[in-house]
Amino acid sequence: MAPFSYNHTHPQDMWYVLTGIPGLEDSHTWISIRICSMYILAVMGNIFLIFLIVTERHLREPMYVFLSMLALSDVLLSTATAPKMLAIFWFHSMDISFGSCVSQMFFIHFLFAVESAILLAMAFDRYVAICHPLRYITILTFSATGKIGITAVVRSFII
């Protein structure tokens, strides 16, 4: 009886080929210039917003803390997607390993869930500010805001 040969490929050895935008290969350079400019604008704008909230003393309210968390998640989300797109368009680096693909998918889904949770926290902040304006400072303390932020990140990681 002949020995059975089993050719098993480990997920670590798998590579995927990304094609960019099929049919528009001639326009990849012009598309990538727009994507790069939007990426730079988004990163610079959000980092400026975070810097402004951190440096200004009167912007230490929960609303601005949640806004800075949202800006940070936007910076990380755009950084998780745009560099690989630009590598495909500019350097024709169309292959991606299984591990890189899975980690990029994890960060994209994780950061979308973080953004959703932060928007929920911002809605709760506005609810407390509108419905209980006299108790707003006692309900949303700095520690409560931090706990809400940590809960948003942990919830998104679990999801």
From TrEMBL:
Q: Which InterPro entries match?
A: GPCR_Rhodpsn, GPCR_Rhodpsn_7TM, Olfact_rcpt, OR51/52/56-like
Per its UniProt record, what Gene3D superfamilies does this chain match? Rhodopsin 7-helix transmembrane proteins
Any keyword Membrane?
yes
| GO molecular function annotations of the record | G protein-coupled receptor activity; olfactory receptor activity
* Domain annotation G-protein coupled receptors family 1 profile: ranges: 45-159
Q: Which SUPFAM superfamilies match?
A: Family A G protein-coupled receptor-like
Q: Which family does it belong to?
A: Belongs to the G-protein coupled receptor 1 family.
**What is the documented function of this protein?**
Putative odorant or sperm cell receptor.
Report what the protein is called: Olfactory receptor 52z1
